[in-house]
Amino acid sequence: MTHLIRAVTEADWPEVVALEAEAYADTALVEGEAALRSRASAGTCLVLDLDGRIAGYALALPYPRFRYPDLTRPETTPHCSANLHLHDLVVTAPLRRRGLGSRMARHLTDTARTRGFRTMSLIAVAGREPFWRANGYRAHPEARLPAAYGPRAVYMSARLAAVRKAS
Fold first, then answer.
1. Does the structure show a pLDDT above 90 at 19?
2. The dihedral of CA 35, 43, 47, 159: what is its sign?
3. Rounded to 5 degrees, what angle do the CA atoms 69, 70, 75 make?
4. pTM of the prediction?
5. Cα dist from 6 to 22, 120, 165, whole Å
6. Which of 15, 38, 113, 166 could form a disulfide with 75 if both were Cys (CB 3.0 to 4.6 A apart)?
7. Once rounded to an integer, what is the mean pLDDT over residues 71-94?
8. What is the pLDDT of residue 126?
9. Which residues on neighbouring strands pair with residue 122, listed in sequence order?
10. In 37-66, which positions are buried (b, 16+ CB within 10 angstroms) versus exposed (e)?
11. Model confidence over 121-147: pLDDT tens digits?
12. Which residues make beta-bridge pairs with 57?
């Protein structure tokens, strides 16, 4: 099986939307195509291509630290920031726990470094805080998040120098 992490293309969007719906089916986190596309920043949105099938994606966009997208509406204003906010990273359920999510996170981190970002942030949802802590992120429990992110959501960030480099 060939794993390729590459930039998202126009042809990928139907599969990205389907993966989002699968990943968040039992939650209020499903945003839909318009919102996902609005959070797709050129060069920092990736797909995991396995033999021509999209098996995962990562959407990241410049966003000021300690701020985050409003899940109830699409983005309308591009942000200028030294922080790259990882809005969503999904790997299809049958392929989870094989290191593919960490691999995608490292790839995105390397991309962020190359593009001059100094920090990265994210909101860990549905109990994923341990995964992100293992990938170099630190929780900020003082950051208040809207209920739309879920009851266990935690804002996290990392300085890019502190995030593990891709192996």
1. yes
2. negative
3. 65
4. 0.89
5. 21, 19, 18
6. 38
7. 87
8. 84
9. 86, 156
10. bbbbbeebbbbbbbeeebbbbbbbbbbebe
11. 999 998 899 999 999 999 999 998 998
12. 47, 90
